[in-house]
Every structure is written in C-alpha cells, then in structure tokens.
Write a structure and sequence with these properties.
By secondary structure, this protein is mainly beta. The chain has no helices and four strands. It has one domain: Rubrerythrin, domain 2, CATH 2.20.28.120.
Length: 50
C-alpha cells in the first residue's frame, strides 16, 4: 500500500502535534501545512518529521 502515516511537528515549538496520511508515490518531498499549534495558541507552519 503506498499510503503511510506522517507526523507533523511545529516549526516554532518543535512539538509533534498532528498525524496525517500521505501518498508516497505522488508526494516524494516532505509535507508542509499551516496548522493550529495548541502550545503557541496560533497558526504556525508544521513540517513532516520522522
């Protein structure tokens, strides 16, 4: 199955807040999304982490 779990970490506080799935075949680079960080209490950029 090409889908895998991806953990998103906040770029400001470095905490892992979200998990999502991604297609490995179509998205070869790391995911980047603007999501709400509960620790910062604002919308920040979240990147895929290992």
């Amino acid at each position: 199955m090409p889908r895998e779990l991806a953990t998103l970490a906040c770029t400001e506080c470095k905490r892992r807040n979200y998990t999502t799935t991604r297609n490995k075949r179509t998205q070869t680079n790391r995911l980047e999304m603007k999501k709400f960080c509960p620790n910062e209490r604002k919308r920040t950029l979240h990147r895929e982490s290992k």
